[in-house]
Design brief:
Elements (H helix, E strand, L loop, with lengths): L3 H11 L6 E5 L8 H14 L4 E5 L5 H5 L11 H6 L4 H4 L1 E2 L5 E4 L8 H4 L9 H6 L8 E5 L6 H8 L3 E7 L8 H14 L5 E8 L6 H13 L13 H5 L7 H4 L4 H16 L4
Parallel strand pairs: 1-5, 1-6, 2-4, 2-5, 6-7
Antiparallel strand pairs: 3-4
Helix pairs in contact: 2-13
């Protein structure tokens, strides 16, 4: 079980070409900007001519609707992939945005937490389902639910790295010790290759002393792992999901769009080999 992830890497190398890097966007604390980051960072990366797949692993399905897809009319979703063994490729939807595909989710996924309990190899279901897609993309991002249950465990087992959004507010570091402890356990038991990609500071307001205090705490907690690009509070970022558009397509001149463009550039510089 511990070395199952090596099989994935061997499978990828045998194909003789660069394979998708897989990144989970994760924080069990809700309201920190996971889905906002998933939708807008991926759209910005796609605009840089990188082929990207977003796996919506959150039963709320907000990443799905964030790309203008009706959650109520899905023919197949992440739930079908995890529980009914549907091929992942059959559930992937091409979005209206450059180089971005999505494996969508809806509330059916909420039942997967219980249904996975009795399945053998439950922690590897998503990883194994994504194997056939690794040749098709430069990056695969997973938008995790605000919990550390079996769905998040599946995402972590399938990932090369994790991104952790943290809001610049009181209690910003609340629960992070538990998250990193979970990641260490996953690394020990299931996925020895998982690493921290970086921490993203969201809801940033440089005018506030509190923000500066939180930034200092986060950098102390995650030395040299905090992205220099920060995501500000921005009205356009809040409005864009109701129109089913990433902010760069909703209002390219907004501060939110500029922030995610800068983050995309920083991320791509870290991953030049891709």
């Amino acid at each position: 079980m511990k070395y199952c992830f090596y099989f994935l890497k061997t499978y990828k190398l045998k194909k003789g070409k660069a394979m998708a890097k897989t990144i989970s966007i994760v924080n069990q604390k809700g309201g920190v900007g996971k889905t906002t980051t998933a939708v807008n960072l991926i759209a910005a990366i796609g605009a840089h001519n990188k082929k990207v797949l977003l796996v919506d692993a959150d039963p709320q399905g907000n990443s799905t609707s964030g790309f203008g897809i009706d959650k109520r009319s899905l023919k197949a979703s992440v739930y079908d992939v995890l529980i009914n063994d549907a091929p992942a490729k059959s559930a992937v939807i091409k979005t209206n945005y450059k180089n971005v595909d999505i494996l969508p989710a809806n509330m059916n996924l909420a039942g997967a937490e219980l249904e996975l309990v009795d399945i053998s190899g439950r922690e590897s279901k998503l990883k194994n389902a994504l194997l056939p897609l690794y040749n098709d993309y430069d990056f695969i991002f997973l938008d995790c639910p605000p919990s550390l249950g079996l769905i998040t465990l599946n995402a972590l087992c399938a990932s090369d790295t994790i991104m952790v959004p943290i809001q610049c507010e009181y209690y910003a570091l609340e629960g992070l010790s538990q998250l990193m402890s979970t990641v260490r356990q996953v690394k020990k038991l299931y996925n020895p290759m998982i690493e921290l990609e970086g921490v993203i500071l969201t809801m940033y307001d440089g005018r506030l002393n509190l923000t500066q205090q939180v930034v200092a705490e986060v950098k102390k907690f995650f030395p040299k792992k905090v992205f220099s690009s920060v995501i500000p509070r921005n009205v356009r970022l809040s409005e864009a999901p109701s129109f089913g558009e990433p902010v760069m397509y909703y209002d390219r001149s907004s501060k939110g769009a500029s922030a995610y463009e800068e983050l995309a550039i920083e991320f791509l510089k870290q991953n030049r080999q891709r």
